[in-house]
Structures are given as structure tokens and as C-alpha cells.
Amino acid sequence: MEERTVDWRDDEVLSARISVMNRPRRHQAAFLALRRLQAPLLGIEMPADWGIDSAVVDALLRSGGARLDGEADEVFQQVVAELCAAPLFESEVDPESAELFQLETIGGWLLLGEALGEMSEVQTDRIISLARELANSLDTCMDDSLTVVEGEDLRERYLAGIGERLRAYGVGYFASRNLEVEGKCHEAILAASDGKLFTSAAGRELLVDCDDYSNEMLSALRSFTNVL
User: Which residue among 45, 72, 192, 228 has its CA within the 20 to 30 Å range from the CA of 94?
Assistant: First the structure.
């Protein structure tokens, strides 16, 4: 019997998780999606002509994870404004693979800044979908490239052992891993008391899971750059 493939871009199961979240929980879900993308911002140097100071990136990530209540955040907005003053936003760029990933991730943080104060389901879904899209893009890049990315055997074993639900999406390693970690994040968010997630052992474990996944993406993206 042929297995039915589920389109992850239009999956009601994934959307339903966001629909039952209140504003603070949607903010937490969006933050964790961006957390899964942050290692390449820190681990791969951005082009000098972008004019983005690493200190601004550090401040963006730090302030972006400080208040997760979905409300307007003046400190975070000030950092976003400083970031948007960089020459990058006044010029056209032709990014390589890792640079495109960095640009899209920066765009995700800007989306978060725009969403605060409302943090609607649609805004939250856009940010979470960005993490899914970038994971799928990395899988496609690896499939289409002759570049050897270390860890192929481990990725193949992971895909061979995933459950029926993840297998139904018919996607590659990073897209599957992202959906797996996303699912853990959303389950923990919905199970935790408001505002208590990241002070709990489960919340701290989620941060580790997101960072481990993000570091895997960093390692793969480094294969397509000259960064050592």
C-alpha cells in the first residue's frame, strides 16, 4: 500500500497547535523557532559590506529572548532599529547559501519585532514556517550539491528510524529534525503554566534541543562556505 504524503506547508495538525495558544505562548513558539536558526548568525562571519556589528547581533538575540509575553518591548525594538540602520538594508546583495540563510533569519527577527503587541496566529505561523522553509532549503541545497557534508550516515540512520507521522511529510533530514523539535517545543509550551516554561527543566531541555539542531545546521552550512 502506497504511503500518503502530507504537505507540511498546509497541514492542519501543525496549524492547530498555534491556534490553541494564547499570546505569550505564541511568542514562546516564535522565539524557539528563531532559536533553532541562530547558530549561523553567531558562527559564520557576515560580509563586511553588510555593516552589521556582531555586538548588535548578540544584543538582538539576548533582548529577543528576554521578554516572551507577546507584548511590545522597547529595548528589543531599539536593537531592531539599530540593526535596520546597517548598510545592508540600503543596498542590493547577491548572497551565497550561508549568507542567504543569515538574511532570512534576520528577516525572521524583524518579523518578530513587527508582531509584538499583537502576536497573532498568522504572524506566529509566518515565523515558525520560516524555520521549516529554511530547513527544507538546506536539505535541497545538500541534495543538489556535489559538496560532501559530514555526517551523512547519521542523517540516513535518523531518517530510517523516524516515526510514521514525520515520515508522512516525505522531507529530508533537517526538515524532519526541525519538525520533530518543533513538536516537542509546542507540546511543552501548551503543557506549561504561563510564564513558567523557561524556568523549568523541560524548558531548559528545549533550549538545548534547539541549540543542538541549530549547531547541526551551522556545521552543514559551513560546508558551503570558506569559513573554518
Answer: 228
